[in-house]
Amino acid sequence: MEDRISVIYISSAEYCGGAERYLELLAGNLDRMRFDPVLVTLGAPGLAGLRAAARRDGVEVVDILWPSIFSASGWRRLRSAIADRRPCLVHCNLPGPYDCRYGIPAVCARRAGARGIVTTEHLPMVPSFVKARVLRGISARAIDRVITVSRDNAFYLERLHRVAPSRIRVVYNGIPDPGMPDAAAGRAGGNRDEVRILMVGSLERRKGHETMIRALGMLGGGYRLTIVGAGPDERRIRSLVSEAGLGGRIDLAGRRDDVGKLMAACDILAVPSRLEATPYVILEAMAAARPVIASRIYGIPELVADGITGVLVEPDDPDALAAAARSLGERPEDARRMGRAGRLAFEERFTLQRCVAGTESVYGEILGEPR
Q1: Which of 110, 172, 216, 219 sits at 20 to 30 Å (Cα–Cα) from 24?
Q2: Cα torsion for 294, 313, 307, 147, to the nearest 10°?
Q3: What's the pLDDT tens digit per position in 72-102?
Q4: Count of CB atoms within 10 A of residue 81's CB?
Q5: Which sign does the torsion angle of CA 136, 140, 142, 144 carry?
Q6: Structure pTM?
Q7: How far apart, in whole angstroms, are the C-alpha atoms of residue 323 and residue 318?
């Protein structure tokens, strides 16, 4: 164990979302014979859940008070944490292009003697601003590899952020295999008449809840919607449900820890978002052999094969969303076929083992290990 390389994961996110789940899954499942994971959070109260999950997985957790990008004391604390754990790799997690202190911890890591520095960019298509571009330009000089979660993201990294293609590596998200789904679950198994649609995600405008609510209003009474999640748009969403007179057909379930159970009980997953890269919830639906109706945006078409594992529609189009839901609701055999195809695609491309192995391969490149 003496020769293990410490991998220091750095996050300063405001709350736990998909990008933070990425960190949890990655750090908790590294090959412990080769790597020793450490999670460093930069004074982020919203990451309490991530810190707790990391500790349960046996990952060392360090929380550093770094109140602002220009905090000299924060810089010193991070530099000390990195220097004390050499030899090490440092992996900065950027949910958006302005997160993780604009990547500036990479500069600190370089000065502290890290053997290599990696970032993961989840949403590089998010518009940046002058300060962010300047600071990212400084941090970019210290970064060896940029991992991103879709080929579409690589395009934005090159065009918007001037990252050299030779430094970009695409590693798709992956999730643990929940096991073979119950073939009899859901309407497709013939055990009920009602078509159940599920939405999972933060309650914010970019997720497209209004579009889904309007689409449900166009469908008959045999369709029911469950919305899982919490967030800043909750009050508006409740008002929309009330105004549409759909309170009897829409369940606002709040935060849930049993999404896998809800996924197994639904017939269709809906992802009518305006902004996504490769959302975990689509992978969860594929693993559960459930068809997906999703927006044709950014990295989603790299997950959902239109007409094969689900249906792609344009964002902000409730008519198209309703038509897709009606088609699958009226043809349960198509839903079963798409669900089976999605399960196969999950097994071949989106398991957690593939994601971790792909990331470890990037680490190996930086360390000069033979391929």
Answers
A1: 110
A2: -50
A3: 999 999 999 999 998 899 999 999 988 999 9
A4: 19
A5: positive
A6: 0.93
A7: 8
Q: Which of 320, 236, 308 shows the shortest CA–CA distance to 270?
A: 320
CB 19 within 8 A of CB 91: no
Pairing of strands 268-271, 195-200: parallel
Alpha helices in 224-317 (DSSP H): 234-243, 259-265, 280-287
Q: Dihedral (C-alpha) 337, 342, 343, 346: value to the nearest 10 degrees?
A: 170
Whether 5-174+351-367 and 187-349 share one fold: the answer is yes
Helix (H, G, I), strand (E, B) or coil at 203: coil
Q: Which residues contact 178 (CB under 8 A, 6 or more apart)?
A: 260, 284, 287, 288
Residue spans of the chain under pLDDT 70: 1-2, 182-192
For residue 203, give the nearest of 235, 225, 177, 176 by alpha carbon: 235
Pairing of strands 116-121, 88-94: parallel
CATH of domain 187-349: 3.40.50.2000
CATH number assigned to the domain covering 5-174+351-367: 3.40.50.2000
* Parallel, antiparallel or unpaired: strands 310-313 and 88-94: unpaired
| Domain edges within the chain | 5-174+351-367, 187-349
The number of angstroms, rounded, from the C-alpha of 241 to the middle of its chain's C-alpha atoms is 27
**In this structure, is the dihedral angle defined by the CA atoms of residues 116, 278, 100 and 166, taken in order, positive or negative?**
positive
Q: Give the integer Cα–Cα distance in Å for 140 and 162.
A: 9
Q: How far is residue 17's CA from residue 202's CA, in Å, rounded to a whole number?
A: 8
Strand duo 5-11 + 35-41: pairing: parallel
Largest CA distance in the chain: 64
Q: Which residues pair with 169 in a beta bridge?
A: 147
Collapsing DSSP states into helix, strand and coil, what is residue 314? coil
Q: How far is CA 175 from CA 21, 34, 144, 270, in A?
A: 10, 21, 26, 19
Q: Note the pLDDT tens digit of each residue in 200-229.
A: 999 999 999 999 999 999 998 999 999 999
